[in-house]
Amino acid sequence: MFNSRNRTLSVTAAALATGLLLSSCGGATTKDAAPSAAPKSCVDTSGDTIKLGFLNSLTGGMAISEKTVSKTLHMAADEINASGGILGKKIVPIQEDGATDWPTFAEKEEKLLTKDCVAATFGGWTSSSRKAVKPVVEKYNGLFFYPVQYEGLESSKNIYYTGATTNQQIIPAMDFLKKQGVKTLFLAGSDYVFPRTANAIIKLYAKQLGIKIVGEEYVPLDKADWTTQVAKIVKAKPDFIFNTINGSSNVGFIKAYYDAGLSPKTTPIISVSIAEEEAPAMGHDVSGNYASWNYFQSLKTPTNPKFIADWKKYPGSSGVTSDPMEAAYDSLYLYKALVEKAGSFDVDKINAAAKANKITFNAPEGMITLDGDNHHIYKPGHIGRINKDNQFDIVWSSPEFIKPDPYLEGYDWFPAATRDALVKAAG
Q1: What pLDDT score does 35 carry?
Q2: Sequence-ordered list of residues with C-beta below 8 angstroms from that of 208, at least 6 positions apart, any chain
Q3: Transmembrane stretches, by residue range (predicted)?
Q4: Of 54, 77, 90, 215, most Cβ neighbours within 10 A?
Q5: How confident is the model at residue 193 (pLDDT cuts 50, 70, 90)?
Q6: Which CATH superfamily does the domain covering 167-298+382-424 fall into?
């Protein structure tokens, strides 16, 4: 799986030019290239502690979302340390700020692996941050745990993806829209790899579902003025807007949406990056709009009440839980399970344990299982409608946990030739 799929995706040459920012980060690797030997690891396992890196945007446009992910990782580390650590070793977190800047993510990842000598790194949010980290973590044969939903079409032996891939979030959202009788859809996204790739897939599936795409607009991640683009939405009069905007740019989009006279009653939004953390920060009442996630605070599972209570009393807590922070929390416990199953912090032994064993964690979203072949997670799908308390009333749930299919190989409308052409576009 990893040798044949170890490349990142670009939808078109234009997407490469405007959205990916990858060529300088080594975002694509060649299918037939022989892997070079990784430098010797400097991880020290001789004492009673183990260093782990937390790499999150604590400043910049993505801080609105990533600060909470960082704090949740610290909470999980504190819990694990209180219960004896990992293989008897207490976690020493090394926190770095990716600063919503993709070269900074690569630089900090290299520092964590080669100077701080961490055994694994946890973090990132945007796909551009992950793609910046990917060549670094592969070069040094490290491990990176990525907690956020993304566009799929990627796998790496050095990355574990604990957020949703496309068939666990975007495909269920499109199926939901079809069942709601949606005929026309407008696509609004930030201008980088995740929204452009996600929307390329959405357009293919929309054609299969008989949903017409009546417009598609992008704004750079660090920009907040959506006035011109929302005017095009008003003119197109779609039944729904599919929102793949990330970070604080959502605030500008929501402002333009309401300033233009749009509302959930006439033109509802379904989002894949607005959760409980972001909803109250939008500057408007966003109730009545929708989001597709794999976890909501309102989810009824045996483990969720304790997770919520523990988070609310944790120092510096935002007071609400959300999907990305829950997936980050899960990632540290999955790492613990992997290390203990391997009996080692060695990366190759951990990956071997992932393939040879059923690795599970009784997470707040339910009992999750790691797919050892592609390093993704079996996850439930949920659609929620925002209420007046900025919580989500769950209006649809998948009947079972969804097997991760990052390359959409199980979907006839996404043929191999199309998939391979898209991957080839990465260069």
Answers
A1: 52
A2: 413
A3: none
A4: 54
A5: confident
A6: Response regulator (3.40.50.2300)
C-alpha to C-alpha distance for 361 and 242, rounded to whole angstroms: 32
What pLDDT is recorded for position 421? 74
Q: How many residues does the chain have?
A: 427
Architecture, CATH, for domain 2-163+304-378: 3-Layer(aba) Sandwich (3.40)
| Contact of 90 with 45, CB cutoff 8 Å | no
Please state, in angstroms and rounded to a whole number, the distance separating the CA atoms of residues 408 and 316: 39
Edge-to-edge strand list for the sheet holding 392-397: 212-219, 184-190, 240-244, 269-271, 290-293, 382-386, 392-397
Domain ranges of the chain: 2-163+304-378, 167-298+382-424
**Distance from C-alpha of 257 to C-alpha of 251, rounded to nearest angstrom:** 10
Radius of gyration over every alpha carbon of the chain, rounded to an integer in angstroms: 20
Q: What is the DSSP letter of 281?
A: G
pLDDT in tens, 296-324: 999 999 999 999 999 999 999 999 999 99
Token digits of residue 242: 């599919």
SS3 315: coil
Do 2-163+304-378 and 167-298+382-424 have matching folds? yes
- Who's near 63: CB < 8 A, 6+ residues apart? 57, 100
pLDDT at position 425: 63
Task: Quickly count: other Cβ atoms within 10 Å of residue 333's Cβ.
Answer: 19
